[in-house]
Amino acid sequence: MSPRYLLFAPLILAGCMSGPDRYSYQGVQPRPVGGEAMVRGAGPSRAAAFQSWSSQAPAYRLYPGDEVEVRVPSAPELSQTVTVAPDGNVRFPLAGTIPATDRTLGEFESLMAQALSSQLLRPQVQAIPASFGSQRVLVLGEVGQPGLYDLPGPIGALEAVAIAGGFEDTANRSEVGIIRRAPDGGAMLRAVDLKASLRGGEGGDSIPLQRFDIVYVPKSGIADANLFVQQYIRDLLPFNLGFSYAAGSAYN
Fold it and tell me: Alpha-carbon distance 221 to 53, whole Å?
């Protein structure tokens, strides 16, 4: 796996948006990996603490390229649709520059109202998503072309692997990891058996990928995915498997 793709990991883990569950394949049942998933390799075992997998949708967060309809009921002439710029900010009349990236809609509304309060009396702001910018997943590990890929629609891990050039001969198809932001901002890991899916001819697993998911195809099972996160994500952040954001080309 090329080191340059590992550099994208903290960026992609910045956030995930949830979408409607329009993807429903039968057959392969994903296996959750939660709590202290042990990492085994040379030397002492280490624990990579993933949260238990949750189907609860995380709060929608804004990212560069997203368009938001901003309504100001007390000053309707200001209402307009704005786009989150590549630097993560939104420019709005009378409010100036508002940091938007990785903010929930409620947080963004509060920041916008606070900025407008210098010009308006007790302004109220409503933010409504209009369109979404980057819809990408990161595919890493034993695939032909690791990297960032646009989601063409509601797909699962198997389709993502196919888009990334397919499995390498060294790939462990039985325990492919999906890493996703948890509702509270931590990290969740789930294993799917794509080998069984291929044998059954179903064409995919039963988890629709979400924005900024990581699909990791290990050589020797899901423990390698734990080691990957331990080495290239957890150790880069000053908190326990949290998510951070740095505006950059990974979102554009």
Answer: 18
pTM of the model: 0.66
CATH number at residue 81: 3.30.1950.10
**What is the CB-side half-sphere exposure of residue 192 using CA atoms within 13 A?**
30
**Conformational region of residue 166, where left means phi above 0, alpha means psi within -120 to 50, and beta covers everything else:** left
Q: How confident is the model at residue 231 (pLDDT cuts 50, 70, 90)?
A: low
Please give the tally of structural domains in the chain. 2
Parent domain of 100: 67-131
- 36-87 pLDDT, tens per residue? 343 333 333 333 467 788 877 778 889 899 999 999 999 999 999 999 999 9
- Residues 82, 140 within the same domain: no
Q: What is the dihedral of CA 49, 54, 56, 61, to 10 degrees?
A: 30
pLDDT digit string, tens, across residues 187-202? 888 888 898 777 765 5
Same domain? 42 vs 96? no
Say whether both 140 and 232 belong to one domain: yes
Looking at residue 194, which CATH number applies to its domain? Answer: 3.10.560.10
Q: How many CB atoms lie within 10 A of CB 20?
A: 8
Is the domain of 141 the same as that of 21?
Answer: yes
Considering the domain architecture, whether residues 187 and 124 belong to the same structural domain is answered as: no
pLDDT at 237: 36
> How far is residue 73's CA from residue 239's CA, in Å, rounded to a whole number?
40
Chain segment 142-200, per-residue pLDDT in tens: 999 998 898 888 899 999 999 999 999 989 898 888 888 888 777 888 888 898 777 76
Query: Cα(232)–Cα(164) distance, rounded to whole angstroms?
Result: 21
